[in-house]
Amino acid sequence: MKISNTIKSGVVVAFLSAGMLSASAQEINLNQDNYTVPSWTRLTRLMAEMQSASQPYSINMTLNGDPTTRMAFAWFTNNSVKTGKVQIVMKADATVDDFNNPNITIDAVSADVKDLNYVTSKNGVEGIEANTKRSYTSHKALATDLKPGTTYSFRVGNEQGWSEIGHFTTASESYDKKEGFSFIYITDTQAQNDEMFDVSQKTAHAAQKMVPDAKFVLVNGDLVETSGSNNSEWEYEQWFSTMQDIWMNYPLVVAQGNHDTSSNSNFSWHFNTDNTFNTTSAVPTTMEGTVYSFVQGDALFMVINYEDYKKEGYFDALADWMRKQVEEHKDVKWRIATFHKNMFTGSKSHQSDSDGRLVREHMLPVFNELHIDVALQGHDHIYEVIGPVNNLTKTLVDGAVEEVETVVSGGVRENMTGKQGGVFNVNEGTLYFLNNSAGKKKYEPRDEQAMIDAYADHGVDNYWGLFSGKFGQTGEPTFSDVTVTADTIFVSTYTVNDGGTATLFDSFKIIKENGSTTNVSKAETSPVRIYNDSDNKQIVIKGVEPESVEVYSSNGSLAGRYTGTTIATNAMGSGLYIVKAIKGNKSYYGKVIVE
Ligand SMILES: [Fe+2]
After folding, report:
1. pLDDT number for residue 591
2. Cα–Cα distance for residue pair 354/366, rounded to 1 Å
């Protein structure tokens, strides 16, 4: 049965209520193309509500360990269903009949999940009373010993009711280093009502269309909006149901965000990720399965959860775990850390955050020690290409940025730096990247002055100078197509408009090569020193003849404007000052203490 695209959401109830959703006898085609937004969201909600008491929902696959041989599954049922299994057929196009004799059957570990909050007053869902609770069964199963490079069909459930048929392909052992592999990176879908879920599902569907061969979809946290003890399971249900067709065919790699933090652990009940960190670490995470790693092709991915930063010893536990992952895979070329809460970022909403600063101060030495190449971030809902950063000095690595184009004069919301594109050599530093958000919520980028003004909060000398590529607010939700080869990581980011059309916003490359190559970068390596010569009571600028010099106090206020290469300090009060020496379109920063 295929639902006609002429059906209006109002008549779906009558049309579908005659048991058409029961079990495997009927085929419901949930192809998004059949619907206009927002009826897609409303329709799936109606379907979810009408599901028979035994039908699986919120179904997903996750990478869990070696993707050449393993695939993990998780789903919910109503609480009356107490068991579940995954059936797997070694065929790309299996039909329901093939599941009469599946190649693999795995019994799920099924657990009661009692009294989750369903909706809150914030959701404003019509027809469902706020602050109601519902109980579920969470089912999880892990397939191991699969054949590498093989496409399988699967379904989940039990004889009381099966899901539709999904598909996955294990990673190949004969990986093509030149061609590499692609994945989709989205973050902060963060929805709480129909309109917001329509935005995030549109982004994800546009990504799926653009990158149909993606090996997985990386979601960097804040899947939903409400958090804490009164979070809403309805939001997770919508997250899965509005994108269920994707999650039946693409494994997820999920990181926990602050909005996923909940004493009800909905996030952990929904995903079957590797929980070894918690069984081996001295300081486990509060939510299970939120720190894990895997190797795909030439890349080691480390999914990190910073939400437990307040626990004593937690950063050390993370560092030990990261050392172990790198040690076990030290020959893998790329080291990619992916996490929700930013280590470097530039919006008015989060650049000054004290928790972000704490994470930065604790984890930068670890990133330096382990030579982390790329950090994929979330949380700040803006687009930013930062670095490569020398993690010890918190400065841009000399000569590591090439081929960045200057396209506008900068200072505009969409492009504060005026730059785009670029080739970033991460040989001596980490590139920190955030692709905005896949949801509706957006934040505003800071300009250079605002970053100086916020120095006391963030403590980074020349924060603005770290923004080496495009930096701004896309205005629309985004996704990235990331392709990893043995030589290069290609990152292309697209905005998605109301109609679901994707438009390229920025595209850059990451390389890892010894030495810098361009004339531009050599010119940038001239040593500029700014220091306090206390014997002669003056600040000295060496290595550049500035046209003007600005001195800021540590709270960001402008203390004075000067010319020349020395500035008398006898009229200054004691304290910390940021000195900005300006020549042409370049600025050089120094931090001095006047006693
Ligand atoms: Fe967040």
Report:
1. 74
2. 19
